[in-house]
Amino acid sequence: MAPPPPASMPLGQRMMHLAQTLQFGWFVGHLTLLFCSLRYSLSYIFFKSYSRWARFSYRTAFVAAAATYGIVVYKAFRARARSSGRQQPGGLALLGDENVQYLLMALVWLFSYQIPLALLPFTVYSVFHVATYTRANLIPTIQPPQQTPSSSSASPGGRSATKSSSPLADTIGRFVKEYYDASMTLVASLEIFLWFRVFFSAVIFTRGSWILLAVYTVFVRARYSQSSFVQGAVGQGVARVDALVANQSTPPAARQGWETVKRLGRQATDATDLSRYAGGQGGKKAQ
Predict the structure, then answer these.
(1) Which residues contact 74 (CB under 8 A, 6 or more apart)?
(2) Helices 209-226 and 98-110 meet at what angle, rounded to 10?
(3) DSSP E strands: which ranges in the chain?
(4) What DSSP line would sit under 165-204, residue for residue?
(5) What is the pLDDT of residues 144-163, one digit of tens each?
(6) Which long-range contacts (CB under 8 A, 24 or more apart) does 74-81 make?
C-alpha cells in the first residue's frame, strides 16, 4: 500500500494526490460495497429484497467487488510486467491467485439470481479493507502525525524524534488486530454455508443452480486448499457431525452413510488438489 502524501503539502493537494491513486479507487470500491450492502440489508429486513432499489444495491455491490479485486489483479499484473526477468503466470497459476478467484466469483454473483448470503463474505472483507486504508492513508492525509520533541541525545538541537499517531487510527488498529482472525473464521463459515444454500437451490432445480453449484464448488475447493480458516471451519463442522453420529441413538445406516460421505470427500479433495498441477504455488492473499 502506497504511503500517504507528504505532510508539507496543503490539505487540498494532499487529498488530490491521494485521490489520483489506484489504491484510492480500490478504497472507494470497498466503501461503495459497504453502503450498498447496508442498503440491501435494510430492504431484506423489511421484505423488499426484490424492489427496484434493492436489486440496484445488490448488483452495484458486486460491481464494486469486481472493480476492487480487478484493481488488485491489474496492479499485480503490472508489477510483474515491470519486473525484468519475471514471466506472467500460466492459466492454472493465475486461477490459484485468491484475488482472481474473488474477482471471478463477484462476476458470477453479479449475473446470477439473488442470494443475499453471497454478499456477506465480501462485506466482511470490505470492513477490514476500509478500516485499514482509513488508518494507514486517509487519516494521515487529513491529519498528518504530529512531531513531538525528544530530550534524547539522539535528537540534537531539539529536533523531533517521534511522531504521535491519531487516537482514531490507534483505535482502528486495535479493532483490526483484535477481530481479524474471528472475522476470517466467520467468512470461512459463511462461504461453507453458502455452498449448502446453493446446493439446496440445485436440489429444487432453481434455474441455473446446477451450473452455479459447479462453479462455486470449484471456488470453495480452492479456498480450502489456500485458507487455514476454511480448513478449520470444515474441520469443526466434521467434528460436530462426528459427535452427533457417535450418539448411541444414531441408526447404523446413518453412521455408515456419514462415513461414506467423508470417504468420498477425501477422495474428491485428493483428486482436485491443484497444487500438483500449479507447481505447489499458493495464491496471493485476497485484498
Answers:
(1) 22
(2) 160
(3) 146-149, 160-164
(4) PPHHHHHHHHHHHHHHHHHHHHHHHHHHHHHHHHHHHHHT
(5) 777 665 544 444 444 444 45
(6) 74/22, 75/22, 76/284
